[in-house]
Amino acid sequence: MMAIGVHSHAVSAHANNLDAASRDARREAMRIIGILREHGHEAYFAGGCVRDELLGLSPKDYDIATDASPDRVHELFPRAQAVGKAFGVMHVRARRGREKPPIVTEIATFRKDSVYSDKRRPDTVTFADAKEDALRRDFTINALFLDPTADATDVPAGGRVIDYVRGVADLRAGIVRAVGNAEARLAEDHLRALRAVRFAARFGFAIEAETAAAIRAHARELQGVSEERVGDELRRMFAHPKRSVAAALLEALGLAEAALGEQAPVASGAALLDLLPPTVATAVAMAAWALDRGGSARPAPVGEVAILADTIPGRWRRAMKLSNDETDRLRATLAGVVHLERDWEGAGIAARKRMAASDWFDDAMMLLAGRDGQRESAQALRPAIELVVEALRGSFGGLNPIPLITGEDLIREGLRPGPDFKRCLEAAYDAQLEGRATTREEALRVAMGGQ
Ligand code: ATP
Ligand code: MG
Q: Which residue among 68, 119, 127, 297 is least enclosed by CB atoms within 10 Å?
């Protein structure tokens, strides 16, 4: 064993609390910093990775900020890819064999941004020093640098934090604060409002008062930001377990209304979003949000859910540039709730089996569990449906047995493909699901009888 204290700065790779992926990414970033420094440059870890290490979290990736120009970076790392040459951002990719994904490290030249006239991108980029680079960043907790080569242990994995903006104090106090003048920084780039909410929700931080006031004052201007960027931020918030905190902040700051173009909710009581398990598909979380926002009560009456299922997916698709898959899943989940709450009780065996075997079933059941939690009466729908599904699973070949007959069988019987065709097959499959047809012949008889 090594004597304790002698190599206090050389924290062992396993004692630094980073997960394996972060350790690999950090080692690669240190390698890059080593090369930059060997050639006389200043280079630090920057932004999110420093924040995460100080919080005791494992950074997803390590970004480097340096005084080396993009051309210089290219000389030192000939295979570096320019991703935003105008902004001085380069990517260095380290392959790690076939099994593991490559590590991509971002190297950005210190810069200051000039005025944002289109509300999206800085007009021009001027390369600058480390301090100016810190000052152009959005929030103090995101504006820290770390010199990992310094003989210090400001973070467990080693290194000295460089803090031009009192970011460490805000990190310790749990505060999201704009760098510099909040009003000006929020007016410059309205997406920062959503970023503030995302970081506050994710870390359980408070948004500092002036920053929050500036966000509120500029909330409506979010409409000038592209739907893609708004959608990306919202997606990330709703994919995260702290989604209900994010939603509450979005409402309180007027950002939900601005992003979606829809009025704030009036319903009170426990939010459905709050009752979801930590990991759910983003589209399912968005379905919960739609019910929280759109309903006149909690849970939203099923008649209202039906209307929301028809109207929300198309609107949100546009507002957040949702993909086809996301939009379909949002719609199917909402419609699924309606099916289960409105149609399940009166449905026969075949119809119930078809519902239980649908793509949307598990997603809708997730929302049903939350809606049960919102109901004052003790009558819970989800457990009742689950019990029945368990029984159906064991009856007549289960929920979705392979069909006894197909279209080809009908053609062989002389039937011509047409409008009746599908109906005949469905009748045969219903009979199979209900145990009225257990052989190919019986299924054919049902199908032809429906002719
Ligand atoms: P995450 O873990 O979510 O990726 P991050 O802090 O790394 O968090 P990024 O979006 O990857 O966030 O951006 C990297 C850094 O770039 C931020 O930490 C911040 O310093 C700066 N930054 C990003 N977006 C903006 C913006 N809109 N305005 C100012 N600075 C920004
Ligand atoms: Mg990042």
A: 297
The CATH superfamily label for domain 4-232 reads Beta Polymerase, domain 2 (3.30.460.10)
* pLDDT per residue as tens digits for the range 373-421: 999 877 899 999 999 999 999 999 999 999 999 999 999 988 888 888 8
Burial class (CB in 10 A: 0-12, 13-18, 19+), 347: middle
Q: Please write the tens of the pLDDT for every residue from 340-376.
A: 999 999 999 999 999 999 999 999 999 999 999 999 8
| Residue pLDDT, tens place only, 62-95 | 999 999 999 999 999 999 999 976 778 999 999 9
Task: State what percent of residues in the chain have pLDDT above 70.
Answer: 94
Distance from C-alpha of 190 to C-alpha of 118, rounded to nearest angstrom: 11
Indicate whether residue 22 lines ligand 1 (CB < 6 A).
no
pTM: 0.90
Atom 1 (ligand 1) nearest CA? 48
Ligand 1 pocket, mutate which of 62, 107, 142 (most atoms under 8 A from CB): 142
- Map out the domains of the chain as residue ranges: 4-232, 292-393, 407-449
pLDDT over threshold 50, residue 10: no
Mutate to test the pocket of ligand 1, among 44, 107, 136, 137 (most ligand atoms within 8 A of CB): 137
Ligand 1 proximity of 192 Cβ (cutoff 6 Å)? yes
- First-to-final CA distance of the chain: 84
The CA-CA-CA angle for residues 375, 378, 381, to 5°, reads 75
Distance between Cα 62 and ligand 2 center (Å): 8
Ligand nearest to the CA of 236: 1
- Ligand nearest to the CA of residue 61, numbered in listed order: 2
